[in-house]
Amino acid sequence: xxxxxxxxxxxxxxxxxxxxxxxxxxxxxxxxxxxxxxxxxxxxxxxxxxxxx
Length: 53
Prior knowledge:
Elements: H1 2-24, H2 36-45
C-alpha cells in the first residue's frame, strides 16, 4: 500500500512538473534542437537577441 502510494505520488509530481515546464513556454523550437542548452543560455543572457536561426 505504501509503495503504491509512493509510486503514484512520484508519477503525479513528474506529470505536473512536465506539464508546467511545457505549458510555460520554457521549451520552444529554438531551444529543443541540437545545441539547445547554448540557445537557452543565450536567451537568458541576451533576451532581445535572436538565439535561433
